[in-house]
Amino acid sequence: MTKRIVITPKASLDIDGYFAYIAQENRDTALLFFDSVRKTFAQLARMSGMGSRYPVDNPRLQGLRKWAVKGFKRYLIFYFERDESIEIVRLLYAGQDIENILEQE
Fold this sequence. Notes:
By secondary structure, the chain is an alpha+beta fold. The chain has a single domain, classed as RelE-like (YaeB-like fold, 2-Layer Sandwich), CATH 3.30.2310.20. 41% of the residues lie in helices and 29% in strands.
């Protein structure tokens, strides 16, 4: 069963920000990034539960999972698997202080 994808406002801003950053150097790569994000979301919708649980202390984020964007492995999708949907919480670059960013959610 394909689940519905729900993208939080912060995750949407993340995607837009990375697109703009990549586009400064190479617009074609930025378009490829955006397409890869979309395809990876569709893959998660079809095969929920992919990736691994991401350990966090924040009780609001218990059960959070992570999965890399296809072709852009340093960009990580953080999401919740719900009964009928996949909730995309954030999309973060692996070089960032992910633990600190997620603790503020």
